[in-house]
Design a protein that fits this description.
Elements lengths: L1 E5 L4 H11 L4 H26 L19 E7 L5 E7 L8 H5 L2 E4 L2 E6 L5 H29 L1
Antiparallel strand pairs: 1-3, 2-3, 4-5
Helix pairs in contact: 1-4, 2-4
C-alpha cells in the first residue's frame, strides 16, 4: 500500500479491551482484536472514500483508477501478539496515491512547470476524523463478542 496511515487505539481503549479479553481464551484474543480493528477501520475507509475527489476532477489522469476505489484496509497480527491496522491505497490501482497525499511537482507533457501541488492528506484526515468513533466501535465490537462467548 502506498501512502499508508496507521490507526492508533488510545490507552483507555486498550485498557477496556484488555479487561474484556481477559475473559476469553488466549487463542481467541488475537482473532477477536484483529476482527474488531478491521470492523472499526471500515468507518475510516468510508470517510476516506467520501473526502477523496470524485473521478473526473481537474487534473485526474485518464486510465488510472480513481483513488476512492483503491482505498483498502489491512490488519496484520505479529507473532508477538501486536495487532496493527492500516488504511492505504491498493497497489497497483492506487500506486499514484502518494502524489495527492504528499504533494508533488507539476509536470505537463514531460516539462516541469516549477509549481508544486498542495499535499491533501486525505487518509490522515480520515484517520483524524474517525479516531474517537473507531476506538468506541472496537471496544463495543469486542464487548459484544465477549458477551456472546461468556453467556
Amino acid at each position: 500500500m502506498s501512502a499508508t496511515q496507521f490507526v492508533q487505539l488510545t490507552g483507555t481503549t486498550i485498557e477496556e479491551i484488555d479487561k474484556l479479553l481477559a475473559e476469553v481464551e488466549i487463542e481467541v484474543r488475537q482473532s477477536l482484536l484483529s476482527r474488531s480493528l478491521r470492523s472499526g477501520l471500515t468507518i475510516t475507509r468510508r470517510v476516506a472514500k467520501a473526502i477523496l475527489p470524485k473521478p473526473g476532477y481537474p487534473g485526474d489522469k485518464p486510465g488510472l483508477a480513481p483513488l476512492r476505489d483503491a482505498v483498502q484496509i489491512r490488519v496484520k497480527t505479529y507473532p508477538s501478539g501486536i495487532v496493527v491496522g492500516m488504511i492505504g491505497y491498493r497497489w497497483p490501482e492506487g500506486a499514484h496515491g502518494h502524489l495527492p497525499e504528499d504533494g508533488h511537482r507539476i509536470v505537463i507533457r514531460g516539462v516541469d512547470t516549477g509549481k508544486i501541488s498542495e499535499a491533501k492528506k486525505y487518509l490522515a484526515k480520515s484517520v483524524e476524523q474517525t479516531e474517537a468513533e473507531v476506538n468506541l466501535h472496537v471496544v463495543r465490537f469486542v464487548e459484544s463478542r465477549v458477551q456472546q462467548k461468556v453467556a
